[in-house]
Design goal:
The radius of gyration is 24 Å and the shape is elongated. The chain is built from 21 helices and no strands. Among the domains are: about 90 residues, no CATH class; about 120 residues, no CATH class. Helices cover about 70% and strands about 0% of the residues. By secondary structure, it is mainly alpha-helical. The N and C termini lie far apart (about 55 Å).
Length: about 400
């Protein structure tokens, strides 16, 4: 709904867009309270928003500077063609295209990753400012400022929902996929919330990825690979936590709780991702996740194959997080000494020294080497750096085991 209204009113009138959406939702609450929820509430809300948009244009087109083409302005100037002109924007395919266009607009490189995710949750997923603030364990004022800066960028640069041209698609699509993956990771291992797993955010990431897959133009191999990766990770959610919310490491998880239907779905998307010559980081991460999903138990994990995927991923991205994850694989496949040598290449790396998992992995390596004092020091540092109470509890157990 937001994407269509932005397309109609223009980005400089974003506050008007929000007013129309809010009015439609309030009218729905008031009407449904007495008449019950309609069979298709989404269509009902869209119809109310469309009628409100027509009413605003009819009464206030001289007050607002709406962003219409010359032809549309002529059509909107008379009652005979006003409604039919606006109706065109609310056709199903237009709605889907505008939604995709809004996804690309949210992920422009000039917008910070934090603001990209915030604006996506607000404009495309329907999260309130309060819900977003709670998800990221910050204040509503902080979220409001992020939203304001993004809307101002839209307004001053006249950014409208638009699917990129073929020559721009690869780069811009990768930015959108990265944003969806960041959003998913915030749900899968919430870094700003006392609840380690946020199913609502995971669902939104899956929903956004599915929108890209529903469009033939954006259904690229790497889009399929990302969906495969999300399916494999989501399949394991039920086994990651105890009933009271404590973290269960992969080695101790009950694999009977893993969702086999999601693993099969992920495998189907992997097969689709194999078309063409494109091999992205999402392909390789999905392949790694698949190996974990098919291992009958932790001891049977094919670490050799996983290590080969990490080697390929490292040559593709040169990401320090990949080095960190590869060291975990080396720990299991080659032993703690080789894992330590791999991890020492990150010593002094600014990003890693502030990342709790770096210190947690280093602690596990020292623990297996029998250097308990170093292990405790690393686990303590990791516990200081994480804001997750579940992670802190897990690290406290690690310290007690030393």
């Amino acid at each position: 709904m937001v994407a269509v209204l932005v397309k109609i009113f223009g980005p400089e009138n974003y506050s008007l867009v929000e007013d129309v959406v809010q009015d439609a939702l309030l009218k729905g609450l008031e009407t449904w309270k007495f008449n019950g929820i309609p069979d298709n509430p989404e269509a009902w809300l869209f119809r109310v928003a469309k009628n409100k948009a027509i009413d605003i244009i009819r009464k206030e087109k001289h007050y607002y500077n709406f962003d219409f083409s010359y032809t549309e302005k002529l059509a909107l100037s008379t009652e005979y063609t006003l409604a039919t002109t606006i109706d065109q924007h609310w056709q199903e395919q237009h709605i889907k295209d505008d939604f995709l266009g809004m996804m690309f607009a949210c992920c422009l490189p000039e917008i910070s990753p934090e603001s990209q995710i915030t604006f996506m949750l607000k404009s495309l997923c329907g999260f309130s400012t309060k819900e977003i603030a709670r998800a990221f364990l910050t204040t509503e004022d902080t979220i409001s400022k992020r939203l304001y800066r993004t809307k101002e960028y839209f307004r001053t640069n006249h950014i409208k929902p638009r699917i990129p041209s073929p020559d721009q698609l690869p780069q811009q699509l990768h930015a959108v996929l990265n944003c969806i993956y960041l959003l998913f990771n915030e749900g899968y291992s919430a870094t700003h919330n006392n609840k380690l797993v946020r199913e609502d955010i995971i669902e939104q990431a899956l929903f956004l990825c599915q929108q890209l897959l529903d469009n033939e133009y954006t259904r690229q191999p790497r889009t399929c690979a990302l969906m495969a990766l999300l399916c494999f990770h989501t399949a394991r959610v039920a086994g990651r936590l105890t009933p009271d919310g404590a973290l269960i490491p992969l080695a101790a998880q009950d694999r009977r709780l893993w969702d086999q239907s999601l693993i099969r779905a992920g495998n189907d998307w992997m097969n689709k991702a194999a078309s063409g010559q494109d091999v992205s980081s999402f392909h390789l991460e999905a392949a790694i996740a698949y190996q974990h999903c098919i291992a009958p138990d932790y001891a049977a994990t094919n670490w050799k194959v996983i290590l080969s995927y990490y080697d390929a991923l490292l040559s593709l991205t040169h990401d320090p997080v990949v080095v960190l994850n590869r060291s975990i694989v080396l720990l299991e496949s080659a032993g703690p000494q080789q894992a330590l040598q791999a991890l020492q290449t990150l010593e002094g790396h600014r990003q890693m020294t502030r990342y709790y998992l770096y210190h947690a992995v280093l602690g596990e390596i020292y623990k297996r080497l029998g250097e308990k004092e170093k292990a405790v020091a690393c686990f303590e540092q990791a516990r200081v750096l994480t804001t997750s109470t579940q992670e802190q509890g897990f690290l406290a157990k690690k310290i007690a085991e030393c």
